[in-house]
Specification:
This protein is globular. By secondary structure, the chain is α+β, with helices and mostly antiparallel strands. It has 2 domains: 5-148, Fructose-1,6-Bisphosphatase, Chain A, domain 1 (2-Layer Sandwich), CATH 3.30.540; 157-262, D-Maltodextrin-Binding Protein, domain 2 (3-Layer(aba) Sandwich). 46% of the residues are buried. The protein has helices at residues 5-25, 44-60, 89-94, 168-172, 176-185, 196-203, 216-228, 255-262; strands at residues 33-35, 41-43, 65-68, 72-74, 80-87, 100-109, 112-122, 127-132, 136-142, 145-148, 161-163, 188-190, 208-211, 232-234, 247-250. It has an 8-stranded mixed sheet, sandwiched between helices. A 5-stranded mixed sheet has the order 12-11-13-15-14, sandwiched between helices. Helix 5 packs across helix 8 (255-262) and helix 6 packs parallel to helix 7 (216-228).
């Protein structure tokens, strides 16, 4: 199996630079915010963080391709860096500390590309999570100060904790009734949103989470971290990895039931 330690170290360096840039403008009274064509907000900090990461990658990995939320795709190499400079921009612009920079490396594998490195850095929370293929998943402030991540062992829906982002997407897709049935069946539900539920699945503090509509940069880093922690990450059709347009993550023991509820049609 290839060794991705150098790429993981680079991803941490990239995350350090992004953290410095985003924290500098967090809660700034003169923060500039625009509305993108899809009606979602983008701040100057989103753009600055992605520019910093792209610039560093062009020097450190000039042959690698890059796909980012704000500036699209660049390059055509077999290795692809996937960047979400601020996952949770709506939180960021309102001063809510639940946002993170997501960085992942994907390489060819299986029927397409698969993530082999992932870093999720949430500086306003003082948290960082990461993983590399075959090396496990960890959390800590640095590579040298880390704790191993492992998913929970909860095996019954009635004992489980389920996290989600919002209700609107489920309703738009005709999945709201199944979603609500799932929330009624669970022990506990909470709408944490964005990257955080996936990290809590990896930590074992939440057993399942799902979102109805996502892009690759929302999922790639989360997927490898959940998988390396022993969990399962698929789309709502059960296809493993971040290649779909939505996501379901769990400790693995509950995954089939999770998908069953979310695919109910009435």
């Amino acid at each position: 199996m290839p060794d991705y330690h150098d790429d993981l170290r680079l991803a941490h360096v990239l995350a350090d630079a992004a953290d410095a840039a985003t924290m500098e403008r967090f809660k700034a009274l003169d923060l500039k915010v625009e509305t993108k064509p899809d009606l979602t907000p983008v701040s100057e900090a989103d753009k600055t963080a992605e520019e910093l990461i792209r610039s560093s990658l062009s020097r450190a990995r000039p042959r690698d391709a890059v796909l980012g939320e704000e500036y699209g795709s660049e390059g055509a190499g077999p290795r692809r860096w996937i960047i979400d400079p601020i996952d949770g921009t709506k939180n960021y612009v309102r001063g809510v500390p639940v946002w993170a920079t997501l960085i992942s490396l994907m390489v060819p594998g299986g029927s397409g590309f698969q993530p082999v490195v992932g870093v999720v850095s949430a500086p306003a929370l003082g948290r960082r999570w990461w993983a590399a293929q075959g090396a496990g998943a960890y959390t800590g402030r640095s590579l040298t100060s880390a704790s191993r991540l492992r998913v929970s062992k909860v095996g019954k829906i009635e004992d489980s904790s389920f996290a989600y982002s919002s209700l609107s997407g489920w309703e738009e897709q005709g999945r709201l009734d199944g979603f609500l049935d799932l929330t009624r069946a669970c022990w506990r539900t909470r709408g944490y949103g964005d990257f955080w539920p996936y990290m809590m699945v990896a930590e074992g503090s939440v057993d399942m989470c799902a979102e109805p509509e996502l892009s690759l940069w929302d999922m790639a880093a989360n997927a490898i971290i959940v998988q390396e922690a022993g969990g399962e990450f698929t789309d709502l059709d059960g296809v493993r990895g971040p290649g779909g347009a939505n996501a379901a993550a769990s400790n693995g023991l509950l995954h089939n039931e999770l998908l069953g509820y979310l695919n109910q049609r009435y």
